[in-house]
Design a protein that fits this description.
The complex is a heterodimer of chains A (about 400) and B (about 525). Chain A has about 400 residues and is an alpha+beta fold. Chain A contains twelve helices and 16 strands. Among the domains of chain A are: about 5-65 and about 305-350, no CATH class; about 110-165 and about 175-185; about 190-300, no CATH class. The model of chain A is unreliable at about 165-175, about 300-310 and about 380-404 (pLDDT under 50). Chain B is about 55% helix and about 0% strand. Classes of the chains: A alpha+beta (about 400), B mainly alpha (about 525).
Chain lengths: ~400, ~525
Amino acid sequence: MAGKVKWVTDIEKSVLINNFEKREWVQVTENEDWNFYWMSIQTIRNVFSVDTGYRLSDEQLVNHFPNHYELTRKDLMIKNIKRYRKELEKEGSLLAEKDKNGKYIYLDFVPVTFMLPADYNLFVEEFRKNPSSTWIMKPCGKAQGKGIFLINKLSQIKKWSRDSRTSTFVAASSGKEAYVISLYIDNPLLIGGKKFDLRLYVLVTTYRPLKCYMYKLGFCRFCTVKYTPSTSELDNMFVHLTNVAIQKHGDDYNHVHGGKWTVSNLRLYLESTRGKEVTNRLFDQIHWIVVQSLKAVAVSLYFWFLNVNASPSLTSSTANDRILKYNLINDTLNIVMPNGEIPDCRWNRSPPREALGNYQVLYDEEQAQSESAERDLRSRSGQLLGSKGARGSVGARPAAATWK
Amino acid sequence: MDEGTELSLSIAHIVQRLKGSHLHSQIERQAKDCLHRPEIKLESLKEDVRSFLKTSGWEKKLQNAIYRELHIQLPPSHPTAPLEHLKEPLAYMRKAQASWEKRILKSLNSMSTELGVPLARKRPGAEQKELINKWNEMGTDEPDLNRFRPVYAPKDFLEVLISLRNPNHDSCEDVSARSHWGLIQVPLNIRDIPQLRQAYTELNLSSGQLGIDDLAHVHPDLFENDYVQIGKKVVVEQDSAAAQQYSRRGCPTGLRAALWALILNSTNQLQDMMHYEQLRAGVIQHNLLVDNLIYKDVKLTASNDDYYFVFEDFLYQVLLCFSRDTAVLEHFKYNSATPPKSYLHGKVGDEEYAVVYPPNGVIPFHGFSMYVAPLCFLYNEPSKLYSVFREMYIRYFFRLHSISSSFSGIVSLCLQFERLLQTHLPQLFYHLRQIGAQPLRIAFKWMVRAFSGYLSTDQLLLLWDRILGYDSLEVVAVLAAAVFAFRAENLMEVTSLASAEAVLADLSTLKVIPLIQIFLFATAI
């Protein structure tokens, strides 16, 4: 295709714009003939709403899938996972196997969760089974840790009970009052006595077949304050919530490192203190959860960026951060637009390993299917398939073979 | 003294040190308890008991303890040599060290007077209680540290080393191209590359190494898998000497913590934990002036470090206890340094009222906490972390900030660095010298910290594997030279000290083992 890629964005962030400019792509406005549009969530909603009937041409790419909120809104995510598990169970799939206590063996990756106020009574039943437990309330449509709080008494969430004045109909349709409530994991892994979470970047280029890539340079975000499960500190968000938006207002927030660690630091620490096998298993499980979550969201469209809050923050809090995000966008664009050319909409080829940059293949359904077909073929002809230690795929080693 | 006498003296010395130790009483108890066992026969009592101790692993523990003693034993010497000669044989080095110590102590005392902060004071009850509550999160404490300055920084120490002269050596004879271009002007015996190649054969190009042959693009069957299996066996055997030998080619991340603990014979038994608790109690009861120096150091260095900020609280827990640990005083027998003395109030000069200050005799300087920080990646239990750090300090780190003629001492390392550079990169050295950028001025801060805080943690740990494996800090000097060799092209372009510093400011992407390997084994000689 001749001519440079024409791009539009409504997010004025240097990590994006610098990447477009360095490729010498041409900036245009949204009313002109564009090839690549990096959209904010609002724009996606408008562009793809039922009323406008907008259709992408073969030479247009966007960075969000229109139904992205199936994965990023907390209540929809839960609904999708629960439904996915039931479907697998109905099919009799091995993945849906349960242990003798009725817990899923392979699909137990979300804590017990209910939607409020819809499932209030179910929640109360569960709460009463273990009245000393702590639960975390998260508003469905918010991000950056806004509006999250912890409870350990039913009285603290009276507002969401059926009898309250807030009508459930209003809540359901507006989506604003809806919350999810999950069993709080009050014994998180601590490092240096502090709680942390993982920020991983996953790129999904096609959904059917599923092709997703995980960025190797994810990071951990630490709380500045020591973790304590003590009930007296349940409302101290500096202890429990790792979001930078919250932590950076703490007294001890450090602007040099931003309370962040690279995932490779985490790996080194875990391998050194807990051993390599345990660590590999942990990362395999993390990758597994990501792939299963993607599969749970049953949609089929063309292009998608995943980050479990839809819009990965492109703001940089430290110098290292800026470099990381710049490189992330760079590697992403290289995969999505190989050789800087507008790909054919039927383009489905997987990029060669060298072109992945800091991404690694998380799951390639097409390749998995062809490999298992090959395996069948070989075993039928009596040949043995040696283990191949495929380092490029799924984080660690041949363990990937276990879930094909 | 002949070898035979030397050996028996050595043995006698070690026996004396281990007598009365906890291990001794444990082995005795085991020996007594095993008498009930059916395989112990009266006729062959001695052999049977010994054989039992062997199979139950106690002999191995004893072996490890002896091995440890050998590490910290003084080299053989003349029977009438005075103690100070054992610490440091060269008189001019002793003198220099003594005058440096005087300076530091003076600085500490004047800080105490100026700020009106006593060297030590007992904490009032309320303060003690508060500290107990805050023990696990002292990092959130914000004492007023602005008034405190570090007692010294590495560059102050460098100036002292530069001014070292051997009064018996007339260096003006050698004003020629063969003279030494560097800053260190003392004639110590340093190994050159051919000798280093012999000493570090395990690092040669044809042997597999961790840090090279375990990278992503190398198939694990080629080296890594077997090497890890061997490592696991070493850990199961619980043999210090084997662990040390193994460590020369690197420790697998999953086994490193166990291997280092083995090499250092850091067992973390009940008595170690109790000892740590006692130290902790000491911290609660008394506040030392050096505590503020430790706080300040951690806040300035580790807290701002991308890798180590997470462990800030552990660093306080280790370093505050370390300052109070009088067991550390033992190492002054073979350290050229002497612990500073302070006098109780009003009794200056009266030896009866002299105490060692701080109790462990070690005054921390700027960057000191970086000796502990990397260990936090390996050990997350405070008393174990403490025990490993203490052993590493009394075996290796102390040599990086005391003036001595030891092979592993900082003076030798500096000289070695400069000699390697001058011999193998003369053009670079000459150029840097001409623009006023003496290489040692840049490399010194790396070496004093054994590169902690300058390399990425995984690389640093690979380097420290070799320090432990070869029981020497020499690799630190070799790496420093190798870094200059690696960046030589860029360095040849610079025209000032500042730009040279800039070229070498960021070492976080370096892979140290290939650098060392290439420098040692691929340099033309």
